[in-house]
Amino acid sequence: MSGCVVPESEIARQYSIAESVRPMVAGTKACIITFGCQQNEADSERIAGALRLCGYEMTESPDEAKLIIINTCAVREHAEIRALSEAGQFKNRKERERDLKIGLCGCMAQQAHRREQIYKSYPYVDFVFGTDMHHRVPEIIKTMLGAKKRFSFISEKPHGEFGVVSEGMPVLRESGYRAWVSAMYGCDNFCTYCVVPHARGHERSRAKEDVLYEAKSLVESGYKDITLLGQNVNSYKGGCSFAELLDAAASFGGEYRVRFMTSHPKDASSELVDVIAHNPNVAHHFHLPVQSGADRVLKLMNRRYTRAQYVEKAREIKEKIKDVSLTTDIICGFPGETDADFEQTLSLVREIGFDMIFTFIYSPRPGTAAAKMEGQTPRAVSNARFAALSEAENAIAQSINDKYLGKTLRVLSDGMNKNGVYAGRSTQNKIVTFDKPVPAGEFTNVKIITAGGYALSGEVTE
Fold first, then answer.
1. Most buried one in 20, 155, 322, 380, CB count within 10 A?
2. Model pLDDT for residues 3-14, shown as the tens digit of each residue
3. Is the pLDDT of residue 2 over 80?
4. Are residues 390 and 452 located together in one domain of the fold?
């Protein structure tokens, strides 16, 4: 790990650069538009911290900003199209406001074919930077201020050398009570459908001391919900096992919760299950992506576990953590998936009983092995399987949530939602609405009165 840690001297250089550009951008507003996963959201908070260090004022409104950075996702084509569409909306404004600067970063920027597309078709995008360049944002800003042409900060290293870990740069958090804490970055699994290893590089873990220092500081600052992040977080190797890291992060005293995203079934150890079961500050929610219920498809996906092994792990989780919420990801229409394979997935869903399924239609990703496979599934077939899976899961989710009727849950309030209703989340990560005002960031007890498939509703009992 030490070989990919950014030296303190480089972090100090970035602070010095930020100080030098501060007078040039003082009073200028910047906006970050984020697409994709929780890791992208965490990355945007780091970028925002660096921009504020440089002297920018952050705003959520692109109309107010003179610097707009679009943080992109490449996991599915739809996410890429949305990001490009977002960039396209600034074309006319860029023609009117020559001092407007537009940057694009994230997983999409890391892909050569997308950068070429941006270079040819989006000339109003001033710069791009990759997924391991966040600590160099001050340098990127200084380059932007003096540039007479477009530029990029992209690592062209191979997977085994690509990626860094940087400590010491500021973070500007969006919430005052929920926080993302990156435990590791990258992925070495190379699932045949997934672009993440190509876009984020090899697995590298932050030192346990750095992760725990950040988590402890958050708890001491009043944060109540902390999520440890990683593309494959339970393969963490920063000086201890992930189970030990999770247990330590949830043991600072006081009432708060620690969650984690995302787990790979092959690395979901019994030790990890035991920590969730026995540490009251660890959320009772386990997201364990299965992707398919058919062994033949799992092998084509290079998932490195069998259906039977997954079922065994799911049963262990449910047996040891009595009130656990088990959620998963499933891909419909993977190349070569037959009707019989899909029926295996449906039967798995019914056998295990997931609280929620995040269902995706397979999207070919350039550079991945699956994109070159024969037997690409017709879209109409994938859509039909998606609908069948959703119908089955809706009934299962309703049945599970009905069991909460009459029970009292400890809920962390998110305050009033856009519908004018107070809502929050339970330890199982279930959305709970309630009848009385509870400030965001405070815990409350809610007795469940009604249950829907994907939300619960009740009365505050305190």
1. 155
2. 799 999 999 999
3. no
4. no
